[in-house]
Amino acid sequence: METKLGHKRKFIVTLYEAVGTALFTYCILVSTADAIAAACGLFAMIVIFGDVSGGHFNPAVTLGVLVWQFFQSDPISKLLFSFLIILGQCLGALGGALLASYALRVDGTVPKEYIPILAPQNTVETQGASGFTEDFQAFWSQALCTFIFVSVILILKGHRTGPTRDGIHVALTVALVLWGLITLDYHTGACFNPAVALGQTFFQV
Fold it and tell me: How many CB atoms lie within 10 A of CB 122?
């Protein structure tokens, strides 16, 4: 959306976001939500698709970019374009979940140990005596970490705030931040991505 000529090739941007989100979701699911695998998967997707689509692969990031650029010019067009991108991301995540389900299937079903925890329905039962007793705790932790993740990306993308225009360095920084946040927030499932959450939920059904 924020890339050069992005608004002139909306279909390509949406397609790239869908494919990138599908592959990113696939990496997360087949690795059973391993933090390093998720970070490496995101790094690869940004390197492959980022120059064309902006490398969001996350509705929260797309929403952040929309708010950041909304009043610069043609806000209605930006709003509609963002909706298309988010739709592509969600469809891509569902496709990634289907691919992961096929890859992990054993005798017609996916073994329970291959299904990662998204957000525990009963945190007391899942975590034992660790003290997490409120669903709001998981929500708050996810919301705060998502805010940090999106903020870092927006700062890196900013012409005045970005420390470098080198795409590899930006992609590496984003991947390292994701790895750090997943490690920090592992107890609630550590998603920070509504599209991937949709894919994981579909995968668990």
Answer: 10
| Residue 46 CB partners (closer than 8 Å, separation 6+) | 55, 57, 167, 170, 171, 174, 175
Place of tokens 């990634």: 96
Q: At what angle do helices 10-30 and 35-53 cross, to 10 degrees?
A: 170
**Are the CB atoms for 29 and 199 separated by under 8 Å?**
yes
Structure tokens at 53: 């689509």
Q: At a CB cut-off of 8 Å and minimum separation 6, what does 59 contact?
A: 86, 89, 90, 193, 194, 195
SS3 label, residue 106: strand
What pTM does this model have? 0.84
Residue 31, phi then psi, degrees to nearest 5: -90, 5
pLDDT tens track for 138-189: 788 888 999 999 999 999 887 777 676 677 888 999 999 999 998 887 766 6
**pLDDT (tens digit, 9 = 90+) per residue, 56-87?**
999 999 999 988 887 777 778 888 999 999 99
Instruction: Give buried/exposed letters for 36-74 (b at 16+ CB in 10 A, else e).
Output: ebbbbbbbbbbbbbbebbbbbbbbbbbbbbbebbeeeee
Half-sphere exposure of 145 (CA within 13 A, CB side): 24
